[in-house]
């Protein structure tokens, strides 16, 4: 039943049980000799003549007769010898043929082992298993590893050659990748630990050094963008290389080759790259190099753990440096309100706001395009804006002025051309973004109210839809309270239109006692509810008779409809159209005060009037009157002449009708109520008023908190009150403390007996 | 000055108590209740001695004159703190006057039946208070002093009165008093103290070290005391 020669394949044959042979010892030796010569033949690739079945049976018998350990030992010795032989062989190879040779011997050896394993499979399955020894194949590999690959003459040569091949390739030369791969695969097959201890450790170390040197050379010689491009390429190459040459997964985790390379190429140099003169982060941001920035972002995001403790991750570095830079740019725009002499700086407030909006746009788009709209970048940008915007205490005013400019249909700062409604709305939305960053929102409210009042009263608002949109935006930002008064102002204007119509009808009715007489004055009145509009102190002035009469007519009419109300004429907010005859008849629009003064000169026979005369006649307060006279006699349209001809008005000056006045336009406007920024005195006054207004708000917040909490410790109370108010302004702890003392005095609160630091609510 | 407008000695009348007609004094052993009755009588005798005789049907009270006399009899200056202690113990409502009920309750409570006894009692009270300025009863006295010294209807005590009162009620070796007085003199914007500031100062004087080493600027001290500390640090006192 023998098999034809050369054919392999285990055949399980069932033999009758044979009694143990007497010639035991002999049998063992003979059996082993047979096997040994067979194995040697296998080694010499002369396996063709062997009978698999017979050999298998031999092995089987040995094991069956309890000689498994002898068999095993013999095989082991044999394999060990063989490995040593092979080792000697390999050692004779030259460097050029070394790897090839080793590979060849390894492949052959494996083949041999497979055959030996097949022959001795019974031993593997029984004896080896029972005695938990290494199976034949594994034992063979292990011995090859011990006595060949790890032999001193082979090991170091192997590793050195491998590493040098890798380096060669890194330097751009072509290398037989398969050869390298086979060698590393062999090491892997010998055990992960073999691979790691013999090869990987050195591989990582040499890679580290290689890339360290390379990166240092390169970074000194190149700008940031070029370096980043190179790194990107290098990383890709290394990934390919590792896949092709080594048997490791490039992306495998901690301490692996990927981390090493990224650390050397990127991690060590992040700070340098960012700070590079003329090509670093700031330069890239300023010149909007989106591709390079994106690359930097991608590469740096790989560095989660910083190179040394206490430092930041890659993205944090970028984020911080960007924020630093934006802070610098922001501060340049914002200044601090005073320049180097401590004098109030001259500020173009419209440019101020436009510059801020431009800066925000610039960085919004950079974050979107280059930094993948990373949330923490956006937050950092906002925090930075918050910081510098509030460093200039006049920011709220300027923002309101900029919005005022747009709402009046102001020209675009940049192009000088008019703007469409959408453009305007876009600008206003952006301006509101800035509003969100303000910490003193109550200051903004105050100015916005003032500017809105001027717009509404002088009818200069471009589009009431746009105005309403802004109000809605403010309402959703800050709540109903913030915009209630503003909406009241709109209501008043609309109501006034209705009232005006009714008044016209009333006058038109025939037989009405108030009907206009020939040559009388046409009055358009707006009725404002006191609480809504910014408070102004107004002083009456003596009006010409006809004006007085007409005003009273209106007043009577209105009060007849609305009993119980009180009307006060706001003479400093009105304007008049006056027909004045110089060389030709002009129609001049001017504020009420100017009109009153000018009418004093209506009589052609009137002579020069002194300042004091005018003051006496009109009862306009002196500081205001000075401004009025300046606008009539020293400004663009000199409707009066002043004697002396200086720019300043003094109480002894004399004024006369300027008979030589002429202008090409028939219709023009004198000193309209333009919106300008406040003088420093006015700013101070506003600031005082704001601070005053804040006190009751603080009190109210304290009472609200204490009513709920009943008992609260000093510092906690201050924190809670600050939190409640932060949507409008940020109160100083010292100010809150003073208000607390006031509330104690007014018996809203008391201190807890025995504990000064705790307050109790007094119902 | 504490509580007394000045009257000249010359305007004083000599007030003598009207001796009541007592039953026979030959009784050797007095019945138990009689001791109390005698005491009460002595108290009312004193009252009669000092009370205002001016108005008919007017309120029964001891007026400024009487108090002045009482002070003489006790050998006290009218500005002495012991008079203030007396006012406190009597629960006097109004400066310069002790009502009948205040007197009766108060003097009985003090267990004094003559000016000398009263004087001795006040002496011991003063020593007591001076030795335990952190105690609740001193705190009570301290607060009383403030309220008592105020003008009617005012919430605050004006600064000159504050200075005098502090020195009277918290004499040396009390910390901070002297310096606080100097601070008040240097800060004319402070016109007076409210109750909170007055009360807080007592606690302050106990808690805060003379060199301010344990002063907590974030503490809830009234801001006037914060300013005081700043002043001392600035002036190097």
From TrEMBL, chain A:
Transmembrane segments: none
Pfam families in the record: Cullin, Cullin_AB, Cullin_Nedd8
Family: Belongs to the cullin family.
Domain of life: Eukaryota
Organism of origin: Hemiselmis tepida
Protein name, per record: Cullin family profile domain-containing protein
The keyword Ubl conjugation belongs to this UniProt entry's keyword annotation: yes
GO molecular function: ubiquitin protein ligase binding
Boundaries of every Cullin family profile domain copy: 394-633
Automatic annotation (TrEMBL), chain B:
GO MF, any single term: ubiquitin-like protein binding
Gene Ontology CC annotation, any one: ubiquitin ligase complex
Protein's GO biological process: protein neddylation
Domain DCUN1 residues, every copy: 38-233
Superkingdom: Eukaryota
Residues covered by region (Disordered): 15-41
InterPro entries reported in the protein's UniProt record: DCN-prot, DCN1-like_PONY, PONY_dom
PROSITE patterns: DCUN1
One Pfam family named in its UniProt record: Cullin_binding
Its biological purpose: Neddylation of cullins play an essential role in the regulation of SCF-type complexes activity.
UniProt cross-references to PANTHER family, sorted A to Z: DEFECTIVE IN CULLIN NEDDYLATION PROTEIN, RP42 RELATED
Protein name: Defective in cullin neddylation protein
Organism this protein belongs to: Hemiselmis tepida
């Amino acid at each position: 039943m023998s098999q034809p020669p050369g054919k392999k394949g285990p055949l399980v044959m069932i033999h009758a049980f044979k009694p143990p042979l007497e010639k035991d010892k002999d049998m063992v030796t003979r059996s082993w000799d047979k096997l040994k010569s067979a194995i040697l033949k296998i080694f010499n690739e002369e396996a063709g003549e062997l009978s698999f079945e017979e050999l298998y049976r031999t092995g089987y018998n040995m094991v069956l007769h309890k000689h498994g350990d002898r068999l095993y030992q013999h095989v082991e010795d044999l394999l060990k010898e063989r490995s040593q032989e092979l080792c000697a062989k390999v050692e004779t190879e030259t460097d050029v043929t070394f790897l090839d040779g080793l590979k060849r011997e390894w492949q052959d050896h494996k083949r041999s082992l497979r055959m030996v394993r097949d022959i001795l499979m019974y031993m593997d399955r029984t004896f080896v298993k029972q005695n938990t020894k290494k199976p034949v194949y594994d034992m063979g590999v292990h011995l090859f590893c011990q006595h060949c690959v790890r032999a001193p003459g082979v090991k170091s040569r192997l590793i050195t050659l491998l590493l040098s091949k890798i380096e060669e390739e890194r330097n751009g030369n072509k290398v037989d990748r398969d050869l390298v791969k086979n060698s590393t695969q062999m090491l892997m097959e010998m055990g992960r630990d073999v691979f790691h201890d013999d090869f990987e450790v050195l591989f990582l170390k040499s890679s580290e050094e290689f890339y360290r040197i390379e990166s240092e050379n390169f970074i000194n010689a190149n700008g940031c963008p070029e370096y980043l491009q190179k790194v990107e390429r290098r990383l890709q190459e290394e990934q390919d290389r590792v896949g092709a040459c080594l048997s490791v997964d490039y992306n495998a985790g901690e301490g692996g080759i990927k981390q090493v390379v990224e650390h050397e190429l990127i991690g060590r140099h992040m700070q340098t790259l960012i700070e590079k003169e003329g090509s670093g982060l700031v330069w890239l941001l300023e010149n909007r190099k989106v591709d390079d920035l994106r690359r930097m972002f991608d590469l740096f995001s790989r560095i989660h753990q910083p190179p040394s403790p206490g430092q930041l991750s890659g993205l944090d570095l970028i984020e911080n440096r960007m924020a630093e830079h934006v802070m610098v740019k922001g501060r340049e725009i914002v200044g601090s309100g005073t320049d180097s002499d401590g004098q109030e700086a001259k500020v173009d407030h419209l440019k101020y706001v436009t510059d801020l909006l431009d800066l925000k746009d610039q960085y919004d788009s950079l974050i979107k395009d280059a930094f993948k709209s990373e949330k923490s970048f956006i937050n950092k940008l906002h925090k930075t804006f918050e910081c510098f915007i509030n460093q200039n205490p006049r920011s709220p005013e300027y923002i309101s002025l900029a919005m005022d400019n747009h709402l009046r249909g102001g020209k675009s700062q940049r192009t000088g051309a008019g703007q469409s409604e959408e453009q305007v709305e876009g600008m206003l939305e952006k301006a509101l973004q800035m509003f969100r960053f303000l910490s003193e929102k109550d200051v903004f409210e105050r100015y916005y109210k003032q500017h809105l009042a001027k717009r509404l009263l002088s009818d200069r608002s471009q589009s009431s839809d746009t105005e309403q949109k802004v109000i809605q935006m403010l309402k959703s930002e800050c709540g109903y309270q913030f915009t209630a008064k503003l909406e009241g102002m709109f209501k008043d204007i609309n109501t006034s239109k209705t009232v005006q119509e009714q008044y016209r009808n009333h006058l038109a009715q025939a037989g009405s006692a108030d009907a206009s007489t020939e040559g009388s004055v046409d009055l358009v009145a707006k009725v404002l509810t006191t609480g809504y509009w910014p408070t102004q102190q107004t002083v009456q002035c003596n009006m010409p008779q006809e004006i007085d009469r007409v005003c009273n007519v209106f007043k009577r009419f209105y009060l007849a409809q609305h009993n119980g109300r009180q009307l006060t004429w706001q003479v400093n907010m009105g304007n008049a159209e006056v027909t004045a005859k110089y060389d030709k008849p002009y129609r001049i629009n001017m504020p009420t005060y100017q009109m009153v003064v000018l009418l004093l000169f209506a009589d052609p026979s009137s002579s020069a009037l002194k300042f004091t005369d005018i003051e006496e006649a009109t009862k306009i307060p002196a500081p205001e009157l000075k401004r009025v006279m300046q606008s009539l006699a020293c400004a663009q349209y000199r409707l009066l002449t002043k004697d002396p001809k200086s720019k300043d008005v003094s109480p002894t000056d004399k004024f006369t009708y300027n008979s030589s006045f002429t202008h090409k336009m028939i219709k023009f406007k004198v000193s309209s109520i333009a919106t300008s920024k406040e003088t420093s005195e006015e700013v101070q006054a506003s600031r005082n008023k704001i601070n005053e207004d804040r006190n009751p708000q603080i009190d109210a917040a304290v009472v609200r908190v204490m009513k709920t909490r009943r008992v609260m410790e000093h510092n906690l109370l201050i924190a809670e009150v600050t939190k409640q108010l932060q949507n409008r302004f940020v109160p100083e702890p010292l100010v809150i403390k003073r208000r607390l003392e006031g509330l104690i005095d007014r018996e809203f609160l008391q201190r807890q007996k025995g504990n000064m630091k705790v307050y109790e609510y007094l119902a | 000055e504490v509580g007394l407008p000045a009257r000249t000695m010359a305007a004083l009348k000599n007030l003598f108590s009207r001796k009541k007609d007592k039953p026979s004094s030959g009784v050797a052993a007095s019945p138990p209740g009689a001791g109390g009755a005698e005491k009460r009588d002595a108290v009312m005798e004193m009252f009669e001695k000092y009370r205002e005789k001016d108005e008919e049907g007017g309120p029964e009270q001891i007026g400024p004159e009487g108090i002045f006399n009482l002070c003489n009899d006790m050998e006290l200056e009218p500005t002495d703190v012991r008079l203030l202690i007396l006012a406190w113990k009597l629960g006097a409502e109004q400066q310069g006057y002790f009502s009948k009920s205040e007197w009766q309750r108060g003097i009985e409570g003090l267990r004094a039946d003559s000016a000398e006894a009263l004087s001795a009692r006040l002496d011991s009270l003063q020593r007591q208070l001076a030795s335990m300025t952190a105690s609740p009863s001193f705190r009570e006295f301290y607060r009383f002093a403030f309220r008592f010294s105020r003008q009617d209807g005012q919430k605050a005590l004006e600064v000159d009165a504050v200075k005098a009162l502090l020195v009277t009620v918290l004499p040396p070796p009390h910390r901070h008093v002297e310096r606080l007085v100097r601070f008040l003199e240097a800060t004319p914007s402070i016109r007076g103290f409210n109750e909170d500031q007055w009360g807080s100062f007592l606690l302050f004087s106990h808690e805060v070290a003379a060199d301010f080493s344990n002063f907590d600027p974030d503490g809830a001290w009234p801001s006037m005391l914060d300013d005081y500390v700043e002043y001392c640090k600035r002036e190097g006192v």
